[in-house]
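Troubleshooting entry. Yesterday's outputs looked truncated, so today I'm pasting the complete records for two proteins to confirm everything comes through intact. If either block looks cut off, that's the bug. Protein one:
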Amino acid sequence: MDERHLLERCRKGDERAWVELVNRYWGLAFRIAYRILRNKEDAEDAVQEAFVQVFRSLPTFQHRSNFRTWFYRIVVRVAMARLPTEPVEPLEEGVEAEILECAHEDPEKIILVREKEQILDWAIQQLPPDWRTVLVLREVEGLSYAEIAEILGIPIGTVESRLFRARKKLRQILEPIFGDEWL
């Protein structure tokens, strides 16, 4: 079913359509919220809150942007509002396995990948939230600069400069750890 038809059914109160919409976007929303918040429960809460906001706002959604962009904007805003002000905790044990999906790999390789992933996640958490969000939306979710600009409500030039600064800072953080081999 195409997205417009699905959204129209949701507006009319069709519970099956709502379940399909949630199923279609839950995983993407969780990945974004988790990458921003670094805590499974907080990310799940943020996604639930985002869906509540979507449910309440769906009657006024006018398709000026596509639904995915509008929804991502809500998820990012909710997750950013939940960011802790204290230092970031290390990754929760076991969560990276859900994200990496490397079940059929060599066990040694899995351990090395997880260690690198933990270090990379730690390095990303050292970035200012605005830089981190742009980096996650571009490098993890693969969104275009235009989509990121629309989601965050900023000019494309700002997206480009934040992404440039985030990558540069990551290089500065990771180069002493990995040298040139990873970067």
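Protein two, checking that the full record survives here as well:
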Amino acid sequence: MTLAASRTIVHLSDLHFGRADPGVVRALHDAVWTLEPDIVAISGDLTQRARRGQFRRAKDFIDSLPSPRLVVPGNHDVPLFNLIARLFDPLGGYRRAVTGDLSPTLTDEVVWVTGIDTTRPASWKSGRVDAETLTRIQASLDGVPSATVKIVVAHHPFDTSDGTGATPSLHTLTAAGIDVFLTGHLHTSYAGHTAQRYNTGGRSAVVVEAATATSTRLRQEANGFNVLRVAAGSIQVEARTWDGRTFVTRDVQAFSRGNSGWTGG
């Protein structure tokens, strides 16, 4: 990473190799390189069905992107139909093909970025943050300077499954000092602060969700990804959208840090 006062982070999610559009994949590769990011963060669902060939294609694509890269698994990276593998070695394919590090961390004087595994093999689709992960993050934050922007990358959004609001883990991590949550899973993009989206009270953080970057399984939104420009007191989030030929900027939102966290959007 460079030593400038800001960082450019490209946020990709839901690649779904096995159902990826080859033309979009090629265009995404070129678009990411044009941005010259300091970090590429990928928030899960690298494959469609956690098959060996799909992992191989996903890994080849990831390796072709600028580094450093921080990657976490999603529920589609856990076998669905192979119940033995799903229950006894759910992320075996991911570990062998992509990385065995399920809590990757990148840090410098501007950003501290950590990834977490939110997959829940027993229920496959839904996600969770376990107590051990919360404890690890809280302990890790003790030595991080207050001005450093602290970012968590996870596959599942931090919403309760019944739609009533934020999960306890979001409250815990925001109170512990997390500034930004980067997630995917829903195939729809969003950027806002937690006080705006949830009744969290107290400190607020920035929530950024990504559309599916390359999958043909769309949910009323074209393929897309996010670009974050991060500095100590400001964050700009750009949503890039596929227009059938290239990725264009669809929306830009700006957030600033205050005494009670982040506002704007």
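Both blocks look complete. Sanity check on protein two: Residues 181 and 207 are 5 Å apart (CA to CA).
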